[in-house]
Amino acid sequence: MPVIRASVDLRNNYGEISAFCHKNREPVFITENGQGDLAVMSIEIYEEFMGKIELYQLLEAGLNQIKNGEVITEEEMMNELNQYIGK
To answer: How far is CA 77 from CA 3, 23, 63, 74, 82, in A?
Structure first.
């Protein structure tokens, strides 16, 4: 169940909300005048989330390359890797 707090709570109870986000590794949803406004989360969870998005984008790009026939052989891949690492 998501944790929902009013914007005044963020201002008045920042430390409590911060501690919750770090301890539970989940966001707190902030409302303004009863309407959803923000999702507050720890930097660690934000970076983890953004890393997953980047990974999903790379996987999607790879799947699209396969779908479009943009593939190379294992030998070509090894040659590229060896050039990259300077062998």
So the answer is: 48, 43, 17, 5, 9
Instruction: Give me the residue label for tokens 């009863």.
Output: 34
The reported pLDDT for the residue numbered 63 is 96
Do β-strands 35-40 and 28-32 pair in parallel, antiparallel, or remain unpaired? antiparallel
As a whole number, the mean pLDDT across the chain is 95
Comparing CA positions, the residue from 48, 1, 50, 52 lying closest to residue 22 is 48
Residue 8: name the closest of 34, 32, 40, 35 by CA.
Answer: 32
Residue 56: burial class (beta carbons within 10 Å; 0-12, 13-18, 19+): exposed
Q: Is 45 within 8 Å of 27 (Cβ atoms)?
A: yes
